[in-house]
């Protein structure tokens, strides 16, 4: 028993902790009473209907928004802007068919874009950028213009952008939304591989939990101004979700472990 | 003629550089608007007896800061901007009609009259250009990052508001000096099209920037040279050269696409 538990507890190191966290603005609370703890090396899904406040959680972690009350700590400090230990993959990107810039440049900028004026170190950034692209399996895309990339390829580039500062915490805001089943599966496996090989923590916002289930350590379920956190098998139950939604919710599992959440008049998976 | 080449060179360089960011940030309409706002300033300056460049610099700077403060979304609101624009043009027309001096002043503000530029104005242009270049050297990378990936740049702690204001001021300065060469109405030919061509041809920002300057410089020099021999406006030649280049690039890229898709 000793060797078994030692192997597990060696990696338990809280990266994000929150106590009685209330998010939003004083006159418009988005969710309240959230208490959770994410450890190093965990893959966590953030699930919930549109408008539930998933992106708000990320904004709190990035220091872009302050909590209404309660505490939240990252690496044992309060959140602050420009924390290089966090890699962020946002939902929106302005890339369109006119953006002729090559992928390597975007990843390179993530490394040195905050440097003003002349900087010799900017030259070394290209090597770091190539390493990041390699980590996501996108080396052959380095010199392709962003406008020529598919949705799945772009997501890899954005992920490389986030990895370039060697973060300990990855925040991915709806990276799967525009992907088909195969690309979704590929990206989820890539994120899982990165989490395990680099021993980093990843929070991933998604609409559909099923592609993530085999890889998840924890899930954060947000709905109706409330937050439930824990292992998937504990949170994704009819009882827990019914309490969350204040209405009768059925959680059904099929033979392969896929989950369907029935009985809620909210937009799951709608855009 | 020497003053014309001096001023033309300076203008082409800064317009090519600032134009790169204008195209990158999809702010061509904002740049165009600033030149119209500047028109009222230029006409007002002439009325008051001051060089038009001074009026341009003043009005475009204030207009640029105003647009930036109202937010990025405001700068893209075509209708609001257009309404302010037409008022500004109307103001400019009023100032011109009140001016009892040479009527060609209006023409030169609208279409550029670089051949008649004074030494004083060349000096003003030089100072403005140096300011622009110094600012660009400092903010180039953060502005590029903020323009390409807004949300990540914000998350990394870049001062987004400040960068937005700096950008608009750069556009205001560059537009003001560029009006001397191609005028308010043809500002696109120096501030937008060279950069648009360059971005289609180069995949790296630094290369696109240099290419943008080269195209603007080449068109300006060629336009000035031809105007020396032919009695037509310089701005017409510059605009035409740039337009032909743009067409050529678009056509050749369309043909490459067709070849690849077979």
Describe this structure in words.
The complex is a heterodimer of chains A (271) and B (262). With 271 residues, chain A is an alpha/beta fold. Chain A folds into 2 domains: 12-85 and 168-271, P-loop containing nucleotide triphosphate hydrolases (Rossmann fold), CATH 3.40.50; 89-166, no CATH class. Chain A has 8 helices and 11 strands. Chain A has helices at residues 2-9, 54-61, 103-112, 121-135, 151-163, 181-198, 232-235, 238-245, and strands at residues 14-25, 28-39, 43-47, 69-74, 86-89, 169-173, 201-206, 218-223, 226-230, 250-253, 259-262. In chain A, strands 5-6-7-3-8-9 form a 6-stranded mixed β-sheet, with helices on both faces. A 3-stranded antiparallel β-sheet of chain A has the order 2-1-4, covered by helices on one side. In chain A, strand 8 and strand 9 form a beta hairpin. In chain A, helix 3 (103-112) packs across helix 4 (121-135) and helix 4 (121-135) crosses helix 5 (151-163). Mean pLDDT of chain A is 87; it is low at 1-10 and 266-271. Chain B has a single domain, classed as ABC transporter involved in vitamin B12 uptake, BtuC (Orthogonal Bundle), CATH 1.10.3470. Chain B has helices spanning 2-24, 28-48, 52-70, 72-75, 78-98, 104-111, 119-148, 150-155, 160-182, 188-191, 193-201, 205-229, 234-260. In chain B, helix 2 (28-48) packs across helix 9 and helix 6 (104-111) crosses helix 9. The N and C termini of chain B lie far apart (51 Å). The mean pLDDT of chain B is 88. Chains A and B meet through strand 5 and helix 3 of A and helix 7 and helix 8 of B.
Q: Output the CATH topology of the largest domain in chain A.
A: Rossmann fold
Runs of chain B in which pLDDT lies below 50 for 5 or more consecutive residues are none
CATH C-level class of chain B: Mainly Alpha
How many alpha or pi helices of chain B?
Answer: 13
CATH class of the largest domain in chain A: Alpha Beta
Count of domains of chain B: 1
């Amino acid at each position: 028993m000793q060797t078994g538990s030692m192997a597990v507890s060696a990696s338990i190191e809280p990266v994000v902790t929150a106590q009685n966290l209330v998010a939003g603005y004083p006159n418009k609370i988005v969710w309240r009473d959230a208490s959770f703890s994410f450890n190093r090396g965990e893959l966590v899904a953030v699930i919930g209907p549109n408008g539930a406040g998933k992106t708000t959680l990320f904004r709190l972690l990035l220091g872009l928004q302050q909590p209404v009350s309660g505490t939240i700590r990252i690496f044992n400090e309060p959140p602050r802007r420009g924390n290089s230990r966090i890699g962020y993959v946002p939902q929106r990107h302005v890339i369109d068919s006119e953006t002729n810039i090559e992928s390597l440049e975007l990843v390179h900028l993530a490394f040195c874009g905050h440097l003003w004026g002349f900087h010799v170190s900017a030259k070394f950034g290209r090597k770091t950028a190539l390493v990041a692209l390699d980590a996501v399996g996108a080396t052959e895309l380095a010199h392709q213009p962003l406008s020529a990339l598919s949705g799945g390829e772009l997501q890899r580039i954005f992920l490389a952008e986030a990895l370039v500062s060697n973060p300990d915490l990855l925040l991915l805001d709806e990276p799967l939304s525009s992907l088909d089943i195969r690309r979704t599966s590929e990206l989820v496996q890539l994120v899982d591989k990165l989490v395990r090989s680099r021993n980093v923590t990843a929070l991933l916002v998604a609409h559909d939990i099923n592609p993530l289930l085999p890889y998840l350590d924890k899930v954060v379920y947000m709905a109706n101004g409330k937050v439930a956190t824990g292992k998937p098998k504990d949170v994704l139950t009819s009882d827990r979700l019914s309490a969350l939604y204040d209405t009768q919710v059925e959680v059904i599992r099929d033979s392969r472990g896929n989950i369907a959440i029935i009985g809620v008049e909210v937009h799951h998976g709608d855009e | 003629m020497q003053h014309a080449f001096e001023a033309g060179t300076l203008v082409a360089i800064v317009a090519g550089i600032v134009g790169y960011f204008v195209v990158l940030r999809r702010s061509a309409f904002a740049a165009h608007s600033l030149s119209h706002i500047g028109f009222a300033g230029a006409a007002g300056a002439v009325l008051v007896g001051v060089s038009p460049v001074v009026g341009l610099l003043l009005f475009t700077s204030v207009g640029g800061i105003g647009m930036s403060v109202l937010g990025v979304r405001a700068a893209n609101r075509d209708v609001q901007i257009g309404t302010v624009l037409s008022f500004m043009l109307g103001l400019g027309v009023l100032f011109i009609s009140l001016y009892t001096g040479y009527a060609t002043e209006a023409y030169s503000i609208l279409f550029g009259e670089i051949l008649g530029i004074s030494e004083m104005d060349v000096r003003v242009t030089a100072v403005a250009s140096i300011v622009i270049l110094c600012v660009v050297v400092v903010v180039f990378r953060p502005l590029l990052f903020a323009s390409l990936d807004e949300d990540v740049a914000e998350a990394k702690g870049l001062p987004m508001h400040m960068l937005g204001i700096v950008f608009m001021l750069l556009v205001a300065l560059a537009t003001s000096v560029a009006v001397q060469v191609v005028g308010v109405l043809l500002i696109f030919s120096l501030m937008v099209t060279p950069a648009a061509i360059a971005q289609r041809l180069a995949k790296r920002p630094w290369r696109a920037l240099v290419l943008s300057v080269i195209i603007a410089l080449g068109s300006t020099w060629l336009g000035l040279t031809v105007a020396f021999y032919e009695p037509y406006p310089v701005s017409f030649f510059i605009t035409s050269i740039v337009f032909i280049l743009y067409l050529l690039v678009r056509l050749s890229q369309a043909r490459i696409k067709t070849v690849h898709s077979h």
